[in-house]
Amino acid sequence: MPLALALALIADLDQAGAGRADRLAQFMEPLRGTDRGVDILRWAVTASLVRQSASSETFMLLLRDWFFQQNFGRHDFATLNRLIPGAPEQFLDFAEQIWLRYNSSLRDENIFITAFADAAKYPVFRDALANRLSRWLGYYWVDATRLRIAERKATEDDAHAVTTAALEERHQRWSAVEEALAPAISTTLQKVEMPERNERDYSGLAGERLAFCPCCRDSPFCLLF
Fold first, then answer.
1. Residue spans of beta strands (DSSP E) within 132-216
2. Taking a C-beta distance cutoff of 8 angstroms, is the pair 222, 129 a contact?
């Protein structure tokens, strides 16, 4: 029964288009917090991936709602582990959203850190994780603390301009040697504009995720660590 309801839900959400989030909320309202509700979502995510029976927008919506169910339990975690190697980029995208966009809890972080460590035994996911680590390490931004210090000695515009110029100069220096360092280091620098409150999150994404490197020990990039 949960599988049949899940397949019907997938079709309904795809048909709803831009209104799929409201439609899912309406469907889940009487089931929120119940075992039946989380069962349907688990089957819906599984069917979306295995049968490729849903759009990417519907898949990500279902994945998010399933993951944040209050009774997401041991059986759900085991299913998540099995699904991750089947869609590495989508699950890495979702984890990045949790770590940056949502106010992630220690529970949220630990679930994906553990799941990714388990999934790294599959080469397809291990390669995707190594590539994503190199991208995460390439994020850079204007340091809010340094900017505040600089603002004490100049106007806000001047302080921002000086700090930004220093970052761009370092970016150019990196770009000049990047090709020579490949393939050992494949990081491509990318500037991110972010509110000050997210600075810790980006720092964690760029630094703390190095803990994944033992999972990617065959990668030339991770061998450096």
1. 139-140, 190-191
2. no
Give the model confidence (pLDDT) of 3-36 as tens digits.
Answer: 888 888 888 988 888 888 999 999 888 888 888 9
Residue carrying structure tokens 């972010």: 194
Residue position matching structure tokens 């949960």: 2
Whole-angstrom CA distances from 109 to 167, 204, 205 are: 30, 11, 11
Nearest to 205 by CA among 107, 113, 111, 126: 113
Is residue 31 classed exposed, middle or buried when 0-12, 13-18 and 19+ CB atoms within 10 A define those classes? middle
Contact 133, 209 (CB under 8 A): yes
For 90-114, the pLDDT digits (tens) are 999 888 887 777 656 667 777 888 8
Q: What are the residues whose beta carbons fall under 8 Å from the beta carbon of 130, sequence distance 6 or more?
A: 216, 219, 221, 222
Alpha-carbon distance of 42 to 63, in angstroms, equals 8
Query: What is the per-residue pLDDT for 217?
Result: 56
